[in-house]
Amino acid sequence: MTTTHGRYHEVYARWKADPIGFWAEAARQIDWIKPAEKVFDPTSGPYGRWFTGALCNTCYNAVDRHVQGRGGQAAIIYDSPVTGTKRTISYAELQQEVATLAAVLQDMGVAKGDRVVLYMPMIPEAAIGMLACARIGAIHSVVFGGFAPKELATRIDDATPKVILSASCGVEGSRIIPYKPLLDEAITLSTAKPEACLIIQRPQGECSLVEGRDRDWKDEVAKAKASGRKAECVPVAATDPLYVLYTSGTTGKPKGVVRDNGGHMVALKWTMDHFFGVQPGEVFWAASDVGWVVGHSYIVYGPLLHGATAILYEGKPVGTPDAGAYWRVIAEHGVVTLFTAPTAFRAIKKEDPNAELLKGHDLSRFRALFLAGERADPDTVQWAERILKVPVIDHWWQTETGWPVAGNPMGLGLLPVKYGSPTVPMPGYVLEVVDEGGKPVPANTMGSIVIRLPLPPGCLPTLWHADERFRQSYLDPFPGTYNTSDAGYLDEDGYVWVMGRTDDIINVAGHRLSTGGMEEVLASHPAVAECAVIGIKDSLKGEVPCGFVVLKSGVTKKAADVEAELVALVREKIGPVAAFRLAVTVARLPKTRSGKILRGTMKKIADGDEWSMPATIDDPVILEEIGDVLRNRGVAS
Ligand code: COA
Ligand code: AMP
């Protein structure tokens, strides 16, 4: 692949020499109601806050300010092969829709600082709902549709929303998934009850409404339109939260990642041009879901803040209708940049290894593919390069950071590619790799990857109502830094290699899940004495969970029946997104003499990787037993 040496080193050095000046300059791309008194205030928040004293509105910058000049341009193109629907919404129409829905929310009593939970499929109303909250200074919290009622209830209890926005159903491939019964159950389970719910009735499957609580979205919007009601943009502090997005922590209790208004706009706007190399007016497609951070940053806010056109795709990479779906969307809408998870490309490659379905699609405007969310395996990257003949860019970030920590910056000129590495840190981030004692390790040595404080604009300033948990999780492990909980190394050229997590988070099809949360569910089964969940290699989803359980003595139920119940229980409590399909009964779990379960060694056995007998093991025979059980299940070789 040809590469050019661009401006990356110069820009990174400029940022490092004067971070305040760098972000002050980037902030000029945003319209402020009142400019910041301080670009960065190290005295507020757990590690400081960006753009303190400034007033702004994210919806204004994402929608209203484009109406003059690009009012007729498509802001959002909704493409839904699963419902056979396409809809183009111009910036002028988007302003109308958002301002109307914002007025409906105000009529329902939602005001600045109130929380609004969204439990929505991939329909334009999801983005309109998020922007309507931003418009009136309400804080949205989107919950991914693949989560079960109990997970939704946990998030409702933490966010205590005044109103919930939802839909009658989602469409997953050829299946209709009723969302409303899941929402009703979640509200029954939760302690914090919303005052009202606004429900979109989808023609694919309507639902009943709870009298006195639920309102019909389309009726309310129609009434507001008839009376000409529209909400103006409400000024908020740059440091006020725009949203809270829950992500998996090490326990079953998810972490509420807070995103502010000011720093978030500055960072995302900067990335659209300098990182993704996209210009206003161009078509940008993040094939993810609004329930994930990628959806927040690059389906909704990034492209719209930049005056680009965002694609909102309701479908899968394969099966809707086939593995050529992505090529059809790119060609039809003139997409210049696609961003998705490697797993999507593994799915396409599996179905159509020779990319026959690419033939006949005009991809002449397509410039780059960006992959993130999980480790991009070199095979998949090289396959995508071969078939698409454009740069394929692995980049690394987290829900917490909100935008790429490291990558190959298309907008600054690409650096040479090293397959398996997401290249170099972006301006804003100084990466270090440290040992268990927090001491930096030499190049090419594995350790914990940390980011020097302060984090740049756009990264989480704290966790929702949990400053102490924020400090304990991220700042205390290695003082002066933010702990990414990723393990890896920096090489002699400063490229970062992200090899895996240091905690019990796993990545299943690009979806972040907690094995600790799954263990809590397994342990709640009356027949289970002990359990351990690990992520094992999967050729499609990257990793899938595998649960090992020891049954209580005296349990007479067949092991296979308990295993089937456990699979059903995880689906019921966490949701289908957990993709938990393998529960394995074992006689005992391998432990160290101090009682710690040897999850790492079990993973190596399951993955068929080389492993050595840990010196501290209590009883070496147990590992052989585990290997035998897995071989019998066809898991380990
Ligand atoms: N609402 C309800 N259910 C959902 C859902 C949603 N929004 N999203 C997923 N699910 C369900 C799926 O239907 C599936 O259910 P099943 O067990 O009944 O089949 C389950 O959750 C697991 O979903 P997923 O892991 O996505 O598997 P899949 O087999 O449906 O699709 C891929 C596999 C690879 C095609 C898909 O995961 C994909 O496109 N991933 C890449 C893009 C992406 O979204 N990345 C995330 C962050 S960038
Ligand atoms: P999420 O918060 O869902 O975005 O997941 C973040 C985690 O996904 C990171 O901490 C990494 O473990 C993993 N991840 C994301 N992108 C990459 C990448 N490009 N390479 C390796 N791991 C990645």
Automatic annotation (TrEMBL):
Sequence ranges assigned to domain AMP-dependent synthetase/ligase in this UniProt record: 64-453
InterPro entries: ACAS_N, AMP-bd_C, AMP-bd_C_sf, AMP-binding_CS, AMP-dep_synth/lig_dom, ANL_N_sf
Annotated ranges, domain Acetyl-coenzyme A synthetase N-terminal: 8-62
Taxonomic superkingdom: Bacteria
A Pfam family recorded for this sequence: ACAS_N
Residue ranges constituting the AMP-binding enzyme C-terminal domain according to the UniProt record: 518-596
Protein family according to the UniProt entry: Belongs to the ATP-dependent AMP-binding enzyme family.
Protein name: Propionyl-CoA synthetase
Taxonomic lineage: Bacteria, Pseudomonadati, Pseudomonadota, Alphaproteobacteria, Hyphomicrobiales
